Amino acid sequence: MPQVMDADRMSRALTRIAHEILERNRGLDEIALVGIRTRGVPLARRLARSLKEINGDSVATGALDITLYRDDLMRHPVGPQPVVRSTEIPFSIDDRRILLVDDVLYTGRTIRSALDALIDFGRPRAIQLVVLIDRGHRELPIKADYVGKNVPTSVRQSVQVRLLEIDGADEVVIEGEP
After folding, report:
1. Which of 1, 5, 2 is nearest to 132 (CA)?
2. Secondary-structure percent of the chain, ordered helix, strand, coil, rounded to 5
3. Listed residue (174, 177, 118, 169) closest to 150, CA to CA
4. Which of 3, 10, 99, 139 is deepest in the core (most CB within 10 A)?
């Protein structure tokens, strides 16, 4: 399993993304971070910490569960019941710039589901996409605004993001045949 990111490289990528967010948005006014469950949530919290360290301002952070918005729920009706977790967005998203945070961007279908779910909470001024890894193979016209690392992969491979908060270690590995 080739490791494409270790803890140090992951930390540097998130710090760089935090600087890019500040530069592009000219500060943090009306910015909020919303992580897509599961691994987007701790990444959003880490970005919020980095932004506070750099700029001194706190950034509202939330968690979005997209389970019921997925377009593949009905494709396998005899499969296991989906596990619905909580969405926690303790602030209004109306007229805010929402930074949607996820670990891996692949086909774009997760992001499409997240956009549908987010819009049910209000009308943001803008939505920007932050991903730790962009592995290509898009099926929908979705592009990240901020990318930690582009990792070319084959469709037979999978990208596994492991985070300290969930998995006990920070790393990104590629599994499967090239």
Report:
1. 5
2. 30, 25, 45
3. 174
4. 99
- Which tens digit of pLDDT belongs to each residue from 33-54? 999 999 999 999 999 999 999 9
Tally of residues, the chain? 178
Q: Could you tell me the pTM of the whole model?
A: 0.93
Q: How far apart are CA 138 and CA 123, in angstroms?
A: 26
**Residue at token pair 């997209």:** 66
**Predicted confidence (pLDDT) per residue in 72-130, tens digit:** 665 555 556 667 778 999 999 999 999 999 999 999 999 999 999 999 999 999 999 99
Residue-level pLDDT at 70: 78
The DSSP secondary structure of 112-173, one letter per residue, reads HHHHHHHHTT---SEEEEEEEEE----SSS---SEEEEE----TT-EEEEE-HHHHSS-EEE
